[in-house]
Please model this.
Amino acid sequence: MKNEYMLQVLETVKRRNAAEPEFVQAVTEVFESLEPVIDARPDFVEAGILERIVEPERMVTFRVPWVDDSGKVQVNRGFRVQFNSAIGPYKGGIRLHPSVYSGIIKFLGFEQVFKNSLTSLPMGGGKGGSDFDPKGKSDREIMAFCQSFIAELYRHIGANCDVPAGDIGVGAREIGYMFGYYKKLTGQFEGVLTGKGIPYGGSLARTEATGFGVCYFADEMFKANGKSFAGSTVVISGSGNVAIYACQKATALGGKVVAMSDSNGYVYDPEGIDLAAIKDIKEVRRARIKEYVNYRPNAKYTEGCSGIWTIPCDVALPCATQNEINEESAKALVKNGCWAVVEGANMPSTPEAIATYQSNGLLFGPAKAANAGGVSVSGLEMTQNSMRLSWTFEEVDERLHGIMKNIFKACDDAARTYGMEGNYQAGANIAGFLKVAEAMKAQGCV
Ligand code: NDP
Ligand code: 2IT
Model:
């Protein structure tokens, strides 16, 4: 990056957020793509768009006290960042994981601003979470935590203000407990959360949306480059919501998924992953992936996460967590003939890993475009709630497919316009940014 003004804004971001490396990483990655736009748009400089877009509109941090099954009081820390509302109410998930702190929430909130813009639906960017660890907790403990979390968060959210959803550690069970308590506190039955259960306002296909969307995006990118899932070998990290439905759709499109993982290790099944077994282990029993070998004796379980990227594959779909592919893993993928990386997780590739994909000519589908299917169907859930009706699975899936095609086209077009054909990372950042920047400029200095 050579633009003096952008370097100065980035320096301020680094100084002000020195203890939040993930946030600085996310901002740096976006800024590096925006240089040609800022060079061409002095009006954005004059309107202070960059200085404003890197600063959340607000962020709340709060105490979350709850009582565990032994009767002991536990205290976690809760967060919600309301990053940008230029194009719609704040929208974004809630993450429950022990690694959560302000820097994780802010990086996710910042990414969400551009992702939500790419969906073409009217949603601003937000994110929340807590350092609560759901692993090994009873249903009652999960409910106690979720109720305490919402007992504070309810005053900051609302159907026209801020609409949370799931992320790591938050699925339909947690959203149900949060929705129930929000309704008790406010007396309002409204579309304040998405990812709700189907009987009380949830959308069909929201569960599948992120994973399906990753594959719809990949499919478009492959077609545009003369490639296809058909006959390809696929490696997917994670075995949660995104990974499971990415596995299902990649298989339906003709790929063979040979490996999946959790935070303890990975399974390699050369005959192709048995998704029913994974669903039983992860969705029904909430157990560990190492049990997969009890269902499929020919599969092999290996402790540790990064080894999954040394398995030869054509297509890698990182669907677990941030910075899970570093330069070494990226080089292993390249060495073994991998030709595409499409990101289901948020920021799963380090900057060095992305540079490795690009210098070796891999097709790269960046997270904020490729995983936007989840929040897109969340947006469609909000639409259905407002209309007080619900669409069929097929109708939602078809809209999701159309949105993912449009997102690919927007990335492709923006990359071409700015002379970076095939660089969908730059295209996603530019296309996502332009809509938000125009809206911020039009709304004045707020
Ligand atoms: P889940 O909680 O359903 O699953 C997370 C999966 O990733 C689990 O297999 C988990 O293993 C693994 N994982 C989590 N943290 C780590 C870690 N630190 N190291 C290694 N593995 C880890 O979450 P989702 O599937 O919903 O989310 C996965 C990713 O996708 C996240 O980056 C999330 O932000 C992103 N995403 C999610 C969307 C959604 O709609 N849910 C939408 C767009 C993006 P274990 O069980 O051992 O913890
Ligand atoms: O990262 C994400 O886009 C999500 N976790 C989904 C957010 C949402 O509001 O559905």
Remarks:
- The longest helix spans residues 393-417.
- The chain has 17 helices and twelve strands.
- The chain has a mean pLDDT of 98.
- The longest strand covers residues 73-84.
